[in-house]
Design goal:
The protein is an alpha/beta fold. The protein contains 19 helices and 20 strands. The longest helix has 44 residues. This is Virulence protein E.
């Protein structure tokens, strides 16, 4: 209190105040003389100081209590922690009753959910490791990162409740209340880790060219954009689960060149788990088992050895790639929607990616140790091996990965989600155009076996027609009669080759020919070839001799 009752009595009016005007005026004059007013002022100042001192002591006591509680919370054993908190009177139960003990009454906590939560709040308030639902894993975990399910042991938790002063909590009730507590504290452990780990960007651009430098890819604007897309899609999938990632890079190269190691290293670095690896997607396997294997454990799904794929397999991968979330469940638990925090990658040692004639905008081939094309087909070094770390050259893959993540964060700050969406759409457009050109050039497609075996040889033997173009240009072109070509293939294969008309049409288009019908007769016209010499040069470029090809490869290497 600011002023005591005696103080107010001292300066209160007398009981007979108002009966005698002159006496009352003298009384008022005496009571509110300068000396009296000074005494009142000093009294109020003393009262204010007392209040301020009381508040200061209260704040100091609260800080000391918080410091003491924080020290107690460092105890890793929850039973010992609960006992220490109880002894320090840090657990304030909400529901209590009075119980006689001898000549006195004491308070006793009731067995209510509120009181159970009071114990859990005291045990885990203000600490980082608490029971929570981890949306990265889609699981409920305790303070030791153990899954809380129907098989989760709660004997230590019951002992902790008892040590905290709440005795008699049943096992089933303990399991239920810790699940509810965890559900009320949802977070994403991967995002939390990355937010703490991603450094400040050093300002050096790496996104566009890291894949080019690591795998010695051909440096083109398209491949630079694909590289930037790869890192941004990985970053956004991790930091904003369910983000767009509709394109999968397909690493094509020799066995052991670092394709699988690349994915493994990324998973280990980003998840901080030495056991982490990319998860193989088996197209004929159990989809739910795959989701359980990758969710919360890896950030990359891989599809390997594309050589045996059918068009149905390719369509299945396209469908999987475009999704941003999945319906999943764990055994004995309900179904839930899991936003994806992983991306797709493909790899193989053969280029047979272009299976869809209608267009491909979901995959982009990247040739590891790429050489100049031979015969119109991509080539790559068979002895290529990606270099992830080299102290002498100052190469550290892990450092580069973290700086790229920092660069991605900076890019997203500058461009936002709308900028990312627009960028992805542009890359999809570029990838679609690239793959259409690949199919037209008969690159990366699965060619009919008989056509592959006999067509170029037959073209070197079939009779050619050199005729003027009908466009008035005065130029000539080369034509091949379709029936005559079939006859040559028949003779070369001793009648065993089976040539499908649509397959032959695509194969001729890949060689630059179009089908025409002069006077109703089907022929193939090479408008860009003016004579037999140009025609023979085209065939020679498609089918170089082994010596010529080896020399070209050796030249590219050195």
């Amino acid at each position: 209190m600011w002023l005591s009752n005696n103080y107010f009595q001292k300066f209160s009016m007398p009981n007979n105040y108002g009966t005698n005007k002159e006496s009352d005026e003298n009384s008022i004059s005496n009571r509110y003389s300068p000396s009296c007013i000074g005494a009142i002022s000093n009294g109020f100042e003393a009262g204010n100081r007392a209040v301020e001192e009381s508040l200061a002591r209260q704040i100091e006591n609260e800080k000391a209590s918080e410091a003491a509680a924080a020290a107690l919370l460092k105890e890793p054993d929850i039973v010992k922690r609960a006992k220490a908190l109880f002894m320090a009177q840090q657990i304030q139960f909400k529901d209590v009753k009075k119980v006689r003990q001898g000549d006195a009454f004491i308070t006793q906590p009731l067995m209510t959910d509120e009181n159970k939560l009071c114990v859990l709040n005291a045990l885990f308030g203000g600490v980082e490791d608490i029971p929570h639902r981890d949306s990265y894993r889609g699981r409920i975990v305790d303070h030791e990162d153990k899954i809380i399910d129907d098989q989760y042991p709660v004997t230590r938790l019951v002992a902790a409740f008892s040590a905290a002063g709440l005795k008699g909590v049943p096992l089933k009730a303990a399991r239920e209340v810790i699940r509810e507590y965890a559900l009320d504290h949802e977070r994403n452990d991967l995002i939390d880790r990355l937010e703490k780990k991603i450094p400040e960007w050093d300002g050096k651009p790496r996104m566009k060219k890291k894949l080019i430098e690591l795998f010695e890819l051909r440096d083109t604007p398209l491949i630079q954009n694909v590289g930037q897309y790869f890192w941004l899609s990985l970053f956004n999938r991790m930091m904003m689960p369910g983000s767009l990632a509709p394109i999968a890079i397909a690493l094509i190269g020799a066995q052991g060149c670092g394709k699988s190691l690349f994915a493994k290293k990324l998973c280990q670095i980003l998840t901080d788990d030495e056991e982490s690896d990319s998860v193989q997607l088996n197209l004929d396997g159990d989809w739910m088992e795959f989701l359980r294997a990758i969710t919360g454990k890896s950030v990359i799904a891989t599809v390997g050895e594309m050589a045996g794929f059918t068009r149905a397999d390719t369509n299945k991968i396209k469908d999987i790639t475009t999704r941003t979330s999945d319906q999943m469940h764990y055994k004995f638990e309900g179904t839930f929607t899991q936003q994806r925090q992983w991306i797709m990658m493909l790899d193989g040692n053969k280029y047979e990616l272009q299976r869809d004639e209608t267009g491909n905008r979901r995959f982009i081939p990247l040739f590891c140790g790429q050489l100049a094309d031979v015969g119109g087909q991509p080539r790559w070094r068979q002895d290529f091996e990606a270099i992830f770390d080299d102290n002498e050259r100052g190469i550290c893959f892990e450092d580069d990965v973290w700086q790229i993540m920092a660069e991605c964060a900076e890019w997203m700050d500058d461009n936002g989600e709308s900028g990312y969406t627009a960028f992805v759409r542009e890359v999809v457009r570029q990838v679609t155009a690239f793959n259409a050109a690949e199919v037209a050039a008969e690159r990366g497609i699965v060619v009919d076996g008989d056509i592959e075996t006999y067509l170029d040889l037959a073209l070197s033997k079939v009779k050619l027609e050199v005729v003027p173009m009908r466009d008035g240009s005065g130029k000539c072109c080369v034509r091949v009669d379709r029936v005559a070509l079939h006859d040559v293939i028949h003779d070369l294969s001793n009648g065993k080759a089976k040539i499908h008309p649509s397959g032959l049409l695509k194969a001729m288009a890949a060689r630059g020919a179009e089908e025409v019908k002069p006077s109703g007769v089907r022929k193939y016209r090479f408008a860009h070839l003016a004579d037999q010499d140009a025609f023979d040069a085209m065939l020679a470029a498609r089918n170089p001799s082994p010596d010529d090809e080896a020399a070209k490869v050796e030249k590219e290497r050195f």
